[in-house]
Amino acid sequence: MAETAKKEIPDKPSIVVCGDTFDIPADKDLTVGPGLVFRNNAVTCTKPGVIKSNDKSVWIDRNNRRYVPVLEERVIGIIIGRVMDEYRIDIGGAHVAMMSSIAFEGATQRNKPELKPGNVVYARVIAANKDVEPELACVNKKGKANGLQVLEGGHIVQCSLGLCRKLRQHKSPLTLPLLNHFKSFELCVGLNGRVWVRADTNKHTVAISIYLKQCEYLSVADAVMTLRQTVKALG
User: pTM for the full model?
Assistant: First the structure.
């Protein structure tokens, strides 16, 4: 069987199909994201969609209905139970994720957070295999929290996986309008299709949540117009 011809990773987003193969330059250390598999210094598409890349990673952008855990991705999970010293966490995937009760910065068996069902965590995927349950941790590779934490209060907005990736981009055009309309708010984006929002007032939290949902179907300009109308209506 003849090998599929290899091409260079496109500079611009391009439509791909299963089996398309792209060379990874020797001078680049890229993280391979969802929809791709790494073999012999090249990546092969395992799912159709739009291939995108930046200086650090390459991935297939597609609106999956269900999240598939990928190593090192940041996700927002909801505690649903506990088994011995591990928490069971819903991350919107096919399987429940597990996280050690001491997977927090500075945590020990005697000094660790006591989480209950319903608590929300922003965590890192440290193990992702289709044959076992995914594992999470609220620390980076150096054992530091670096923003990974238990999320208090706020509101979770369910978004498409594609929108979450857009929100995670550096200086995303979707988040800039929020900086112009609100003095104080927090936004935490999980790549599993969840965005956690907390603003200085409940009205502002609602307005931001509505804006994010509108971004799924409207252009940025139309979504901003809706945001202005929402803020005005809520007072």
Answer: 0.79
